[in-house]
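Reopening this ticket.

The earlier resolution said the output was attached, but the attachment link was broken on my side. Pasting everything inline this time so it's all in one place.
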Amino acid sequence: MPLKIRLLTLCLLGALVVPTATLAQSVTSGVSFETARAMMHERADRLKMTAAEVEQKTHQVKEAKSLSGPKVTLNAKQVEGRKNLNMEFDNPLGEINIPPLGPNFLGLNIPGTLEIDYEDDLSGPRASVDLTWPIYTGGAISAQQEASRAALRQAQAGHDKSREEMDALLVQKYFGVQLARHIEQLRNDLYKQKGRDLARAKRFEKVGMIAKIERMNAEVNLDTAERELVQSQTDLKVAERELSELLREPVPAQLSTPIFVLSDLKTLALWQNLAQAHSPVLREIESQREQALMGVKAAKSSFHPQVYLFGQYNFIDHYLTITEPDWIAGIGVTFTLWDNRDRSARVGSAHALVDKASAAQSQAKHELDKAVEIAWLRSQEALEQFELTTNAIELAKENVRLHERSFSEGLATVDDLNDARNKLIATQVARSVAAYRFVVAYSLLHAASGQMVSFADAFNNPKTVFVTP
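Inline output:
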């Protein structure tokens, strides 16, 4: 088969197995943070749970919306039964005897008590339409409706809080893989370099430029580098496994969004104001307080009368008794004179819940300010540490170059060169770790302020500095 035809066949088969967009993304640019974020939002069970709770509360709001309207029921039943009626009437004139007045007229006796026995058959079908329409409930219905809407807002705030926390967790895992890959690459490069140092030391030993102990030191340095490389590879596997758990699929070979730092942090006061205005934690507690207030309103409604309209229409009148109406309608009032549950205590309990929610709200505001300040300070600290490593890396690189030249001329030992290399890689690792700490603190600053949606804006900021291996 010609080569071009075979290549074309392989390409077609590959297109059938792997979606084109996924293949192009994984091969060319890799998976960006935004793409990983969308994948996590789609697959995270925690977000599915909170979204289902929001949907449940939405249906409950719809359910409570028509509580103030009429309720119409169709009632059908088959009745079996009898009614015995016994009535006695007293004659005010007493017993009356009328004697015969002639041959054609007999006498008449009227007793003093007239007794009537009557038996009625109640058996038969009944079918009616019944209507009940609350007119005034003392605020109980409106309180329940407002409470259901507050519960919906609480569920929405809880969903937003879970999403913010999951996004912050994704930042840790996504850029944690980037950090682990960076360190693994540095350790791998160092291991290869120390392998070349050992080979050079063996050549120098043969020609008598260095002693045997120098060559042995080079071997020990290589073993140390290999151990550190193995550790970094294990750390990378752990980081990839944790990210894979969030994405619910194996981690791609390439992640396109590198670790970064951003010098434009804005002021602490700005972040705290954003948190007070947009934090889902505060919105969640405020919704709980609103529900507690509606609980007070509902408890107070038990002291008010209940006014309602009612009506009934019987479809089958053949079997109705004398006391059963063909139709009936009217207005009714109920008022609880004595309740077996202390209504005043119920109101007091509801007020206590309001006080509890208010205290929780105040505490959350203070805790939120503290969390924002800590995240802001950690971001500033990581940024300063990152900037302080720039000169140190240049110095360490120059130190390595000098020791390599000195070692090649026999003026420096293997240990001197190894120390120079270790200082360089330690500085490079410190720089990457500082950038990672900045990214994590920066994400926590956004999450505490309810602004994780704008976290990705840093990728397009001209002041952003990306850290690549």
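Reporter confirms the inline version is readable. The longest helix spans residues 140-206. Residues 1-28 have pLDDT under 50 and may be disordered.
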